[in-house]
Amino acid sequence: MAGSWSGQAAAGEKSDGNRTTVIIDERFRYEFVDQANLPKDAHAKTLRSRIGLVTPRFHFTRLAIEYENVSEVGRDSFNNTLNGRVNRPVVADVKSNEINQLYLEYTGLPDTTLIGGRYRLNLDNQRFIGSVGWRQNDQTYDGVTMTNTSIPDTKIFYAYIGNINRIFSNDSPVGDLASNSHLFHVTYSGLKNTKLKGYNFYLDISDADVLSSNTLGVSLSGKYPIGPHGLALHYYAEYAHQSDTGDNPNNYTADYIHIAPGVSVFGVTITGGYELLGSDAGQVAFATPLATLHKFNGFADVFLVTPGTGIEDWYVDVTYKLKGVSGPLHFLNGLLLKARYHDFSSDVGSIHYGHEFDMYAKMPLGRGFYAEAKYADYSADQFRSDVTKVIFGLGYKTKFQPFENY
Predict the structure, then answer these.
(1) Over the Cα atoms of the chain, what is R_g?
(2) What is the distance between the alpha carbons of residues 361 and 180, in angstroms, rounded to a whole number?
């Protein structure tokens, strides 16, 4: 559905249609960054506070609103992109107060959900369209969305984006981008153990013409159980073709490929992947400006902008989620552990950029509380400089119905 608090378009925090739902979301984070080409390290302590409300449905319509505040705890010993501390690494968590989401959702048409207003949008794995949820301030979108499920096993999604509210806050000159963009996305789930998806993302971003592009793509994913102890094979394959559009000053075409086979057993999933963001003659590369970029090409965030020579990213990912533990260690149930290794090189020019090792852990603490930690170490070869990140966070999230409808 479109308009979600945390899901594929918009109402990820499902509310009781006959009750008002209040959502509270708090997250404190400490982020340390050591970047070899800068004289000082970054020490960022930030707190994000959100409160949201979803009304009951009335004549197939409900209203959702979410307010967000991002504040700094202690000194701003980091470059937040606005404070001028350019001798320290960037941690793009800017002090802000804003309406993060405000939309109307209408379900009065058969098999159709309509959204209008400001909404959070996460499509698929967020490689092309996402909310950048790792940063304290979301990326949100002003416009309309439509989701239709009238064709069996098929979901058709459309979104119009009139404005992009970026993570840098309204105080930044690049905090808002005017847009005339159209997103088309179709999911077919009628194949056994397999999902087929196709999309066309037409981005016309008038405040940043160089980001305007037209992307056509298709993906295929599946998981096949083959034995005891959760033994299963899984795969992911995606191809997309991109070209310039709108008033983009660059005339280019580039391809995207992502292949990721893997195996799961005893709760452990091991995936080997190859991701290509291709280049046109070493000058302009495949771009995903509305993606949740932190999820891809390393937690050190070295490749948030694709180099003109493109990226080839060979990676291995190991993920484990603990469950079924009884006795005195039962509190460890739900612990998520992830480790990933990347090897980066160019698509054009035979440049070995470097390699990176990442780790992540998230632990539920009960009653809506959780703790998380992240580590990233990028070792440069022929691109940028070494980067080390260490991040700790504590969060709390809950939802409740404060009173009966009348």
Answers:
(1) 21
(2) 39
**Strand positions, DSSP E, 132-282:** 140-148, 154-165, 176-191, 194-203, 213-225, 232-244, 253-259, 262-265, 268-277, 279-280
* pLDDT, tens digit, 9 for 90 and up, residues 154-206: 999 999 999 999 999 988 999 999 999 999 999 999 999 999 999 999 999 99
Overall average pLDDT of the 109-132 stretch: 98
Q: Is 33 helix (H, G, I), strand (E, B) or coil?
A: strand
* Residue type at position 150: S
Residue 269: which of 220, 325, 339, 192 has the closest Cα? 339
Query: CA 313 to CA 302: how far, in whole Å?
Result: 13
Task: Calculate the dihedral angle through the C-alpha atoms of 70, 72, 76, 81, rounding to the nearest 10 degrees.
Answer: 0
The total number of residues shown for the chain amounts to 406
Alpha-carbon torsion (385, 386, 392, 395), positive or negative: positive
User: Which of 217, 222, 206 has the alpha carbon at shortest distance from 278?
Assistant: 217
CA-CA distance, 137 to 96, in Å (whole number)? 8
Compute how many other C-beta atoms are within 10 angstroms of the C-beta atom of residue 187.
Answer: 19
Instruction: Determine phi and psi for 211, rounding to 5 degrees.
Output: -95, -5
Q: Is 0.90 surpassed by the pTM of this model?
A: yes
Q: Which domains, and CATH codes, for the chain?
A: 21-400 (2.40.160.10)
The Cα 137–Cα 128 span in angstroms is 18
* Three-class secondary structure of residue 307 per DSSP: coil
CA 183 vs. chain centroid, Å, equals: 16
